[in-house]
Amino acid sequence: ARFVLLSGSDYPVRSNAFIHQFFQAHADMEFINLTPMPSADGSKPLSRLATYQPRKTASRVVNRLKRTAQGVGLLPRQRDFGPALGRLKPYGGSQWWALTRPAVAYVLDFMDAHPAYVDFYRNTVVPDESCFHTILGNSPFAALAQRSLTYADWSRRRQSPEYLSLAHAQFLTANPSHPPSADFPQGMPFLFARKFSAQSRELLRLLNASLDGKPQARDAVARANPGNPGAGRPMASASRVN
User: Which of 51-60's residues contact partners 24+ apart within 8 Å by CB, and which partners?
Assistant: First the structure.
């Protein structure tokens, strides 16, 4: 079994048959970015762990009281994350992963056995970009880890990736892949992409036509990027751990 975390802004860029065959061919690999914190590019600083961020609730009053308590010093702004992590080296990475059943079971067993670790991440900045990663980065599964299978355009180096548009059509319909690596000499394929929005309908239509193998899809993609055959090849998430 394979567990894949996606959001409502994600969409497959390979056919169902390709995705199924890929996971079958790499049944022992864990696809999750594992980068030691702090990361070299600064996108995963230790301040994410050292900053105490009270968990928000459904009550605005409670949330306001928590902010006020921090403001007057009743709740801390900074904390020592060492006791919560113990001997674990902190790791970070994109929250979009594709894990095997044994890896997911390992994470759940660890969290059941270490409730203090779970409580720590309840009040942590973007916990989904470190909680699972730290557990797996300090486990035997780290040796089997590969990069995320989800493409994102970080070319403008903002806080969030760019929304995908027709400018990405040629790239996304041309079997997008990571750069070549030792394990994947031809480049590890991206299976999914993000972020799509309500304005991405035409792009999704072209992508669906391409995945269905419709002959007119290539011409439609070319018309979407007239006079620019290299359009739609922005910097991928391979350039950043986020």
Answer: 51/77, 51/78, 51/79, 51/124, 51/125, 52/76, 52/77, 52/78, 52/79, 52/123, 53/123, 53/124, 53/125, 54/123, 55/122, 55/123
